[in-house]
Specification:
By secondary structure, the chain is an alpha/beta fold. The protein is built from 18 helices and eleven strands. Helix 10 (170-185) crosses helix 11 (197-211). The longest helix has 30 residues, at 293-322.
């Protein structure tokens, strides 16, 4: 099997390492960890880089630890941030950790024995410290000059908002996490985004000073699109792995809308598709970009791994519905994200159920009048829930999806979502 570093480089998942000696060290099984910030109760597409990297390490036979920052999440990592994060309560962090654990179980093989992933919460060991004991036992091993020299610290100190003492101490907590995992599990490698370099080296330095041992760090690139925008909550385009926060349809559409300039990089980074197959899709992008074969392959692969075959089926059905396919079997929750960008209105249920479709079309604003709606229906251009209607047809109770809404359409693409209210 190829060295995992070669795999990561080929797939655009490698940024830097603390020592090239890591390459040789990875010829034998190694224990490594990656951390996840419990700032929300679901991971999102921006976490795929770390998740996929851990998956590649596990596939190569290494032991993987997923650390959820139950303790550090109470403070907030200042790396890459221009202002201090909102403090979360212990109850919020606990709920978020439960959601993250469920997310990770879809990708990593958790269990016992070699090659199995392990989930840990750093609150389990940090809660044993008092402030005095942490300063005495851990803090004394950190040097102010080194801490102040970290890029994440220097940027914040130079900013208008500055940096609080709480945030400044964050690197000592993450550094100790690495030492604890080294002692408890023989963990010798930490992975993290390129903005984590300072926190990672805080841990490798601590292990070297305290245990006279070599530990390693490997950073991952921050994946961006061709416009330089990253997948992240702070960018306002978060695609959550929890379908209650981001529907299967919206998740599918997010990747389907990938630009031609980005899609091949995304296929390499976010899927396990063989590189030769990706190369073939790259040729198709060049030869027939209008077919969007690479985008379809990307969206289907990612949704299948995140939401399973059923989630992919729902996403494809919802996509078909937007282009005139059947709405049979779809729920209101399925339809709302599909028609989120379509004009919508609210009408009293009593004015919809049992009323002529043409009258509802006029009341909703889809047509200027009932007469116009009748002429449209007479010509075969008026639809209810993507089914063609005749001028005399009425809205039956069974056509109201979940008792909440109906979808009207004039012509091929002119939709109107009608929400029923009492």
């Amino acid at each position: 099997m190829a060295n995992v570093i070669d795999t990561l480089k080929a797939r655009g998942l490698f940024d830097n390492w603390t020592s090239p000696d890591l390459y040789k060290a990875l010829e034998r099984p190694m224990t490594l960890y990656g951390g996840f910030d419990p700032s929300a109760d679901s991971l999102q597409a921006g976490n795929f880089v770390a998740i996929m990297t851990l998956c590649h390490y596990q596939r190569a036979g290494h032991d993987v630890i997923a650390l959820v920052g139950g303790a550090t999440g109470l403070i907030g990592d200042p790396s890459g941030k221009s202002a201090e994060r909102t403090m979360l309560s212990e109850e919020q962090v606990a709920r978020n950790i439960a959601g993250i654990q469920e997310n990770l179980s879809r990708f990593l093989d958790f269990g016992e024995g070699r090659g199995q992933a392990r989930l840990v919460n750093n609150y389990d060991w940090h809660r044993q410290f008092t402030f005095i004991s942490f300063l005495r036992d851990v803090g004394r091993h950190f040097r102010m000059g080194t801490m102040l020299g970290k890029e994440s610290v220097r940027q914040r100190l130079a900013s208008e908002n500055g940096m609080s003492f709480t945030e400044f101490c964050y690197q000592t907590l993450q550094g100790y996490d690495f030492l604890h995992l080294y002692d408890a599990y023989g963990c010798r490698l930490q992975i993290g985004g390129s903005d984590q370099w300072g926190n990672i080296t805080a841990g490798t330095d601590l292990i070297h000073r305290q245990r006279d041992a070599e530990a390693y760090g490997q950073t991952l690139p921050l994946i961006t699109d061709s416009q330089g925008r990253k997948f992240g909550k702070s960018e306002g385009n978060a695609m959550y792995l929890d379908r209650n926060k981001t529907s299967c349809y919206a998740f599918y559409q997010f990747f389907l809308r990938s630009e031609d300039a980005d899609v091949i990089r995304y296929l390499k980074a976010f899927t396990f598709m063989p590189l030769d197959e990706i190369a073939q899709l790259e040729e198709q992008v060049k030869a027939a970009p209008e077919k969007r074969e690479a985008q379809k392959a990307l969206a289907e692969d990612v949704v299948r791994r995140v939401h399973g075959e059923e989630g992919l089926r729902q996403a494809l059905q919802a996509t078909e519905a937007l282009f005139g396919g059947t709405l049979a079997g779809m729920t209101a929750a399925d339809l709302l994200p599909v028609f989120a960008d379509a004009p919508s209105c609210e009408l009293p249920a009593a004015e919809v159920v049992g009323a002529p479709v043409t009258k509802v079309a006029a009341a909703s604003g889809l047509c200027k009048s009932a007469g116009e709606a009748r002429r449209l229906a007479d010509g075969g251009g008026l639809y209810l829930n993507n089914e063609r209607v005749a001028p005399a047809d009425v809205v039956s109770e069974g056509q109201v999806v979940d008792g909440q809404l109906v979808v009207l359409r004039a012509g091929r693409k002119n939709y109107r979502l009608v929400r029923l209210v009492k």
